[in-house]
Design goal:
With 471 residues, the chain is of the alpha/beta class. It has helices spanning 9-18, 23-37, 49-62, 104-111, 154-161, 178-184, 218-230, 247-254, 279-295, 310-323, 337-348, 351-371, 398-408, 413-418, 447-461; strands at 44-47, 73-77, 115-120, 167-172, 187-190, 210-215, 260-263, 298-301, 377-381, 422-429, 435-442.
Length: 471
């Protein structure tokens, strides 16, 4: 039986534009699905039904239909404050916190005409690459609920994959959009540093964290990213090209072009950790290569130049980034072991150590851009392993926990360090229908190339027609 969530986000927007459905009716549809299906999935930590319906009515009455997300539902990641809505940051430390102001990404999505239905699940302060915390149920993979959904935008990924939202924003500081997208069979896009005005990354330590979309189709991801780009004009924002007047969505819909690509299975963590690419990840990569060759793209092979500075420098920046969490004295006991370890190690580091690490990562950025200069995009596995079981990560040994995260996600963090755009695409089905993906990393400002290639693969493989049982 047909239901509204069977439509893509683009199709839902078209229905809204034609008046075949109202923003209120669409919000009701998704709120009913959340109420019926989210128990056990862990997609949302707060559902704001009354506020959502009030907002939908306001959009219908007062917001121009030309707004790029007019009437489309989304969820705020629980790291992005919305005025008047509890924001837990996945932590007992923030129990009872209700922000008085919304952050810039939240305001940008409101300005685009979107309708927030609540807050999506995130781990403590977004630090882990999985979404399991002490203050909320784990975000479970809709394809197999014994598996996790990845993180830190795990709740957003679950909501989109299970048809509780048409698409969702996330934030990505080391893979936090791409990891859960890959684990749940979605498209996840981390834009170039400086592209999105409400989250350029330039104001973040080492420029790591930027917002990006999670969606079921390449075009839906581009649609949400276009709305993020349009939502403000701030200093140092990379000017987004307008592809024949249609924004990045035009590149995603057209899916045109033949490009020179390189395939790579080395990672910057290889010198520091035992990295093994699973048979499933290898099969996904091989499938993508075959399809890309059939389309007409050129494929080279590439191996990263070894750089022993990457691992310690990234660890230093991750720890220092956590050191600013507002926990002192007895409040540290409220933090989970991994977070507390990061906070305490970060506060032990000196300014000199931080400065040296930032310089090393800046040098690494220049090195990667030089190594990738001969191709339009680099193809890697999205994840080294299949989605991890809930409870797989060591909750008491932070060093082992950190190693487990690296071994699962060795290919994502260096796109943040270099500021390059990267997209994960769900190309392959492992045993039991579990999705496995690949990652494309582009040149600075090269989102249009990634979206074009992604659209070509989507047309051939039809992943948008595969859905988990909750669908």
């Amino acid at each position: 039986m047909f239901e509204l969530h069977h439509l893509s986000a683009q199709e839902q927007w078209d229905w809204l534009q034609r008046g075949e459905i109202t923003p209120t009716e669409l919000a009701w549809h998704y709120l009913e699905r959340i109420d019926r299906l989210d128990d056990g999935l862990g997609a949302f930590v707060t559902v704001t039904s009354d506020a959502a319906l009030e907002r939908a009515a306001h959009v219908e009455a007062s917001v121009p239909k030309s707004a790029p997300l007019w009437g489309l539902p989304f969820g705020d990641k629980d790291l992005n404050p919305r005025a008047g809505v509890p924001t837990k940051y996945g932590s007992a430390l923030m129990a009872g916190f209700v922000p008085e102001v919304s952050d810039e990404l939240t305001l940008a999505l409101d300005a685009a005409g979107g309708v927030s239905l609540g807050k999506t699940n995130a781990p403590e302060f977004g630090l882990p690459s999985y979404t399991e915390s002490r203050v909320a149920p784990p975000a479970r993979n809709p394809w197999d609920m014994s598996l996790g959904a990845g993180g830190s935008s795990g709740g957003a990924a679950v909501a989109v994959a299970a048809g509780l939202l048409p698409f969702a924003p996330g934030t990505d500081g080391g893979g936090s959009v791409r990891i859960p997208a890959a684990a749940t069979g979605l498209v996840g896009l981390k834009p170039s540093r400086g592209l999105v005005p409400s989250g350029t990354g330039i104001d973040k330590l080492a420029g790591l964290v930027v917002p990006g979309p999670l969606a079921r189709t390449v075009a839906d991801a581009a649609m949400l990213l276009d709305a993020m780009i349009a939502g403000g004009d701030y200093p140092f924002t990379l000017r987004a090209p307008r592809w024949d007047g249609g924004g990045l969505l035009n590149a995603a819909v057209r899916g045109e072009g033949r490009f020179q690509l390189a395939v790579m299975t080395t990672s910057p963590w290889d010198d520091a950790y035992d990295i093994t690419v699973s048979a499933e990840a290898s099969a996904a990569l091989a499938l993508a290569v075959r399809e890309l060759v059939s389309i007409g793209h050129g494929i080279d092979e590439l191996a990263l130049e070894p750089d022993p500075t990457y691992s310690p420098a990234f660890r230093t920046v991750w720890q220092v980034g956590a050191s600013g969490i507002p926990a002192e004295g007895a409040e540290l006991e409220l933090l989970e072991p991994l977070t507390r370890w990061l906070v305490e190690r970060g506060r032990e580091l000196s300014a000199r150590q931080l400065a040296e690490s930032l310089a090393q990562l800046a040098a690494y950025e220049r090195s990667i851009i030089r190594q990738f200069a001969g191709v339009d995009a680099v193809l890697t596995p999205a994840l080294a392993l299949t989605p991890r079981p809930v409870g797989w990560y060591d909750s008491e040994d932070p060093e082992r926990n950190f190693a487990q995260q690296v071994q699962y996600t060795p290919f994502t963090s260096f796109a943040n360090v270099t500021g390059l755009p990267a997209i994960t695409l769900p190309v392959y089905e492992a045993a039991g229908g579990i999705p496995m993906g690949v990652q494309l990393i582009g040149r600075p400002g090269g989102e249009h190339v990634l979206l074009s290639i992604g659209a070509q693969l989507e047309r051939r493989l039809g992943w948008h027609r595969r859905h988990p049982p909750q669908w």
